[in-house]
C-alpha cells in the first residue's frame, strides 16, 4: 500500500488507501515512523510500498524526485513566507531515514514546466497542491480548476491533463490566516514595525475583517481566482478543497453561476498517496505534467 503526506499550514496530514490521520505541526516534532502503521492493513510498516511526501515550498527542484537525491530538503532557503515549527522537518527526516521507498513532490515555481506567463512571480503553489490537483483531476477529468481554501487560498489550472499554473496565497485571494501584502502592510514593513513574513501571517481575513464578513470575502476572492483561471480554459469544471471549502461553496456557486465539486481537507494527502502508487507501481514518467526522476545518485 502507498502513503501520502501533506505538509499543511497547521497540520501534517497522512493518508493511505482506506485511512487517514493528522498531527498538528508543533506536535509533529515527536513523529515516529511507527505512527504510520495505523494506516496499514496489518498495522505494520512492512505493508508500505512507497510514500509521497511534501515539505514547505519545495522550490529547489522541479521533478518528482527520490527523497535521497534532494539537497536542503528541496528548499532554496528556509527563510520566507510561512511559520517554522520543526514538525515538517521531523517527518521528512524520519521518512528519509526509514529506508522505505519515497519521493518528494516539488512546488510550482520558475523552474516548473508551467505556462511561462505565470513565471512573472517566483512561486505559484506549494507541493501539496500537486497532490490536490492530481486527486481532483481523477474526479473531474483532464481540464479543471482547483481552489484550495483554508489558512491560505491557492488556485490551480489543469488543462489537457497538465498543470498550467497557479495563483499562490501571497499573490491574490486571502485565506483565513495568510494573504497578500497590502498598502498598510508595506508601510509597516518599511517603518520596521513588522517583518514581511509576520505581515503575511496576519493578512488573512481572520485578522482583517469582522467575523460576519470573513466567509463572504473568502467566497468572493476564491470565485475571482477561479474566474480568472477560466480565461485560459473556458468551461473547465471547478473544485473547492480545504477546510473552508464547504463554508464558501454557496457564495462561490452564486458568483460563478455553477456548482463546484466540494472535497475535504484530506484531498492533498489522498492525492499524494495516489501519486506514490502511480510512481512506484505504475512507473509513470510524469504526474499531470510534472516529470518523475528517480535516477539514483552516482
Automatic annotation (TrEMBL):
* Record organism: Methanospirillum lacunae
What is stated as this protein's family in its record? Belongs to the UPF0285 family.
Q: Which InterPro entries match?
A: Methan_mark_12
Designated name of the protein: UPF0285 protein DK846_05795
